[in-house]
Specification:
Layout (H helix, E strand, L loop, with lengths): L8 H9 L11 E11 L4 E11 L2 E7 L10 E4 L3 E5 L1 E6 L17 H17 L2 E6 L6 H10 L7 E4 L31 H13 L4 E5 L18 H13 L3 E6 L2 H9 L4 E4 L5 H10 L2 E3 L4 H8 L7 H24 L2 E3 L14 H8 L4 H7 L2 H6 L17 E5 L14 E4 L2 E5 L3
Parallel strand pairs: 1-4, 1-5, 6-7, 7-8, 9-10, 10-11, 11-12, 12-13
Antiparallel strand pairs: 1-2, 2-3, 5-14, 14-15, 15-16
The structure holds arginine.
Length: about 425
């Protein structure tokens, strides 16, 4: 084979831009094969499948018999396994430690949290999540972690990051653990339309690529009512308008019905938790095309391990109220055809355990295919990244994972990801 034809277009373009025509980067072609592959765009399983990867791009994917595999391609056969796009979790806190909640969190400095994030990023990608949306981190620790991952200093998923979450004084996104003489509040606190606009601008200035705000009270915050709305409609409108103006999408924490509806009407892109939802909220979400990110596994960790980890008694009581209702409402939203994305809230529970939610999503109303779509193509659409992420199709980035066996028959196999490729590079490869 002529050497020129082995150089990918991107490599040539790169060499030319850098003025290095004599130092051409050679294209590597790999073909990954397995007994099955999930086609998330068509919602079907392909038998005896292959994916041709050139550099970091998917050159072709589909039934192996129909692919023209270049003779020089390196082959990786995974056997009785299922290939699928790299998984995407739309609700993580990589710099949060699941063993430290409540007052135990106050012992952790910002630099310490950022370092813990390094360990969590590795655990997350090894569990098969090649992309995450980090929806809240004090001190822009998530920005630092993303930049370290992108620079190749540490291993981790592609990160979309929010920086500090925005919230009202004393609300779920504030820090309410200390009495007033400590004058302690979270960095994302902003009240009133212009203050929230300014906070959005500040978050963007320091590297945020999504905006997160707290529309209602929450489970783990001290002194907030889980169902009560916190931001006014006017504040939400200003905040979302500002983010959209700058080309960023917006996620809102919302458990309570009125907060969920107000945020949807104000144009939010995704609602997180969505626990106490009513029929009108479902209709509104469908009308507006809003995504729901419902963390229906975490309740088991909070009620099982939470006390040991320092979760406050009042939070455990709030969890007893929302956990069960959230699961019932998950089924309603799925049945109604709301856009659903996988969001785990890992950080509240251990990073790397994210995939435990898949089996629950099927138990509480999704088909296995819907659950996999919720963690691949749907998040790519929510993030407006479907041109490069979310499915195994020609031209997309080579973010590929595989699980042993067939997850359509047993969703807990999603907890056993054995092969991970991110951006054309193999991060993990076990014999499956
Ligand atoms: N971060 C969320 C909060 O504090 C966790 C909620 C977890 N509970 C649940 N059932 N999803 O409100």
């Amino acid at each position: 084979m002529n050497w020129v034809s082995r150089i990918s277009k991107t490599s040539v373009a790169l060499a030319l831009t850098l003025g290095m025509t004599s130092v051409a980067v050679w294209a590597d072609t790999i073909v990954i094969t397995a007994d099955r592959m999930v086609d998330v765009s068509q919602g079907k399983m392909i038998k005896r499948a292959g994916i041709i990867v050139t550099d970091n791009i998917i050159a072709a994917a589909g039934e192996l018999g129909k692919l023209s595999v270049p003779a020089n391609a390196k082959r990786i056969d995974l056997g009785d396994a299922t290939l699928m796009p790299g998984l995407m979790d739309m609700h993580v806190h990589l710099t949060s430690d699941a063993t430290r909640h409540g007052y135990k969190r106050l012992e952790v400095s910002l630099p310490r949290a950022a370092i813990t994030g390094v360990k969590h990023a590795k655990a997350t990608i090894e569990a098969g999540f090649t992309t995450v949306r980090n929806v809240g981190a004090p001190g822009f620790a998530d920005v630092a972690l993303r930049d370290a991952i992108n620079a190749g200093d540490v291993e981790g998923p592609r990160m979309f990051v929010a920086g500090p979450s925005l919230g009202v004084t004393g609300g779920h996104c504030d820090s309410n653990l200390l009495p007033y003489e400590y004058d302690n509040y979270s960095e994302g606190v902003a009240d009133g339309p212009w203050e929230v606009r300014k906070k959005v601008r500040r978050n963007i200035k320091y590297g945020a690529t999504v905006i997160k705000f707290c529309a209602t009270g929450g489970v783990l915050s001290k002194g907030t009512k889980v169902g009560a709305q916190q931001y006014t409609f006017e504040e939400m409108q200003a905040l979302i308008d500002e983010a959209h103006l700058r080309g960023l999408t917006v996620a809102t924490h919302a458990h309570g019905t009125s907060g969920i509806k107000a945020a949807i009407k104000a144009g939010v892109d995704s609602v997180e938790h969505v626990s106490l939802l009513d029929d009108e909220a479902i209709v509104l979400a469908k009308q507006h095309g809003t995504y729901f990110s419902m963390d229906i596994y975490v309740t088991e960790y909070i009620l099982g391990e939470g006390e040991k980890a320092g979760i406050l008694e009042e939070s455990l009581n709030k969890e007893r109220i929302v956990g069960k209702t959230q699961r019932e409402n998950f089924k309603k939203a799925v049945d109604a055809g709301v856009n659903m994305v996988f969001g785990s809230d890992a950080g509240v529970y251990p990073h790397g355990d994210n995939p435990k939610q898949f089996a629950r999503m099927v138990q509480f109303g999704m088909t296995p295919m819907q659950a996999i779509q919720a963690a691949t193509i749907n998040p790519a659409r929510l993030l407006k990244q479907e041109a490069t992420l979310g499915s195994l199709e020609e031209g997309k980035l080579a973010d590929i994972v595989a699980v042993p066996g067939n997850p359509m028959e047993d969703m807990s196999l999603m907890e056993k990801v054995g092969f991970v490729m991110k951006d054309g590079r193999i991060v993990k490869q076990y014999a499956m």
